[in-house]
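Limitations
The structure tokens in this dataset are predictions for the assembled complex, not deposited experimental models. Users should treat interface geometry with appropriate caution, especially where small molecules or nucleic acid strands are included. An illustrative entry is reproduced here so readers can see what is and is not provided.
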Amino acid sequence: MTALSSESCPGTGKLLAVSGDPGAFADERKDAKAVLPQRINADPEDTERGLAQLVLTLIELLRQLMERQALRRIEAGSLTDDEIERLGQTFLKLAIRMDELKQVFGLEDEDLNLNLGPLGNLM
Amino acid sequence: MAQLAAREKEATLLDLLDRLLNKGVYLRGDITISVADVDLIYLGLKVLLTSVETMERMRRQSWR
Amino acid sequence: MALYWYAIVDQADKPVQTMRGLEEAEVQLVTYGEIAAVVGTLDEAEVAPTPTNLWRHEAVVECLMGERAVLPMRFGTVFADETRVRASLKAHHSEFVASLRRIRGRVELALQVMWDDDGARSKNSAASVCTKVTKRSLLSRGPILGGRRRAKGTKGNGRAYLMALLEEERRDRAWRQRAETLAERIDARLLALAEDSTRCLLLTPRLLLTAAYLIDKDQVESFRHQVQMLQSEYPEMHFLCTGPWPPYSFVRNGSLVETAREGENDCA
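Predicted assembly:
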């Protein structure tokens, strides 16, 4: 019978090469939460927050897309100075408002993203 | 040095976790208790590296 | 009662060596043609991904690798009974056979490379314009005149904000380009020793490269040597190489993941 020890197994002989602090790699990945798939919270006890999270994620997506559109038009030179100023003011106000809403619901930037599995993150 | 060994162990564990939970052949069984489906919504990586009891308690309490 | 599925193996006619998996259950083979599923009975309704359980699953898979070609299953794959397992083997038979052929005699090595140049990517410039405007508009809130409140001193902020965004974008693009060039150079050196690889650029700003390489078992030492050489060539960066692992990253299962030989960036 082949004895398979589990607790003594962890990490034995799996480290082939490392330069620097191995823990730094662990910390980095933990911060990124890149290891476990993230989902929108579906806990019924917290539907309000889950809903806010979903709605704000979509608003954030649109906001970023629109901002990027504006930048492309600025680079293409197809906006007047006045239009740039007005657009900028609008985006600025929107950005500030989003920060406020995030604070109200206790959401961080990382929360307003969707993990699409193999397709990576939405934003 | 014990600290270094622990850090190495942690780094290796993460490589293992990534493989076992996100990769490998993925087939849905008939019993939907596949970890990839339900349980991971409630798990954070930090929770995973603590004891089973703490993990169970946190799952009941928090949503993240 | 159910069956926990560890892996898919070849040489279905060869009896599996005796070993115990989760819940100390002896593993068995469920065969279909020349391939088989390696399973173990399970009483518990839940399989928690604790380090202990994870390593036990891994230990079974690694033990099998000593004598067969092995396609490792994802952790937590549980089927109701043998009939369903067999049906699954049948449904994906040709795919499994092809995958087994591809990984036979090979192992997976994991690589991560960290660099210090995170490009100061925090959204500082646009964000600081935001903050300045907020502060100014808060400070300038005076008595309501004719029903309208006006934030003073905000002229030019709109443009400033967009210009800051533009500058941020440009810096980001340049930074990404630097990262890509560097990562490709490193990856190419190691890909030369490998049958295949998956790679992900900038999983986090500091994780320049996250990759997995499918290499022949007897190439592990040469690979390790290459990594050590890269370490000395790039002393400012940090390398982490672990393995050998079962080929988790190279068992295609109709997923969208493409590997280096077939497609582009894989960040699944």
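Some entries come with short summary sentences. For this one: Confidence is low (pLDDT under 50) at residues 1-11, 34-40 of chain A.
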